[in-house]
C-alpha cells in the first residue's frame, strides 16, 4: 500500500474534477480498510505541489470580474451551483494538502482519519453538485470561477495552526452561515435534487469545522497556548477582511467554535 502522503499527492496532481474525486474516494476507502481493527498504516512524507492540478476549464477570474447573477433566475441559480462546485473541488485539494504538507508533524492517527473522511465527503459534494449542474444542462467548467481560492492554502503553507484557523474554522464555518439561505432559494424554486444535495453538504460540513476546532485545540494544548488569543492573531494575520455576521451560532457551537472566537473578528467589532 502507498503511504497516505503519497496518496494525497496523487489526488493533488490529478487535474480533472471527476477523476480527482474518484481517486480521492478510492484512496479514502483504502485508508479506511487499512485502519479497520485499529491498524496504523504508514502516513509517510511526500512533497505536495504548491498549486494542485486543475482542469483547463473553468476559467479563473479575479473575484470582482466574476459576473454577478440574481438567484431569482434559473441562470443565477446555475451560477450559484457552479460557484459551490468550485468551492467543493478546492476543499478536496485543501484536505489532501493538509495531510501531505504537515505529515512530518507527529500527530495522533485520528488526525489523518478525520481529514481523509473530510476529503472523501468533499469529493462526494463536488460530484453531487456536478450531477445537479448536468441535470440543468450545464457542467463544471461551463462558467468562470473565482481565482484566489487557493490563496489561503498558499499563505499558510508553513503554518499548520494558521491553516487550521483559516480553512476549517473560518472558511468552512462561513459555509455553515450561508448554506441554509441557499437551501431556501432552491426549495422556493422547487428544485428537490439541489435541496437534497445541499442538505447532505450542510450536515457533513459541521464535522469538517469540528475537526478544525478539535485539532486546533489539540495543538494549542501541546504548545501551551491560549486558543482564543492565538486564533485571533492567526486569522488577523492570514485572513483578509473581517468575518461577516449573521453567524450560524447553533451550528458553530455544534462544531466546537464558541462566540468569543468569531465575534471579535466581525465587522461590528
Ligand atoms: Fe463540502
Ligand atoms: Fe468541508
Automatic annotation (TrEMBL):
SUPFAM superfamilies with a match to the protein in the record: Ferritin-like
Biased composition (Basic and acidic residues): 56-68
A Pfam short name: DUF455
Annotated segments matching region Disordered: 34-74
Signal sequence, start to end: none
Name the record gives this protein: Uncharacterized conserved protein, contains ferritin-like DUF455 domain
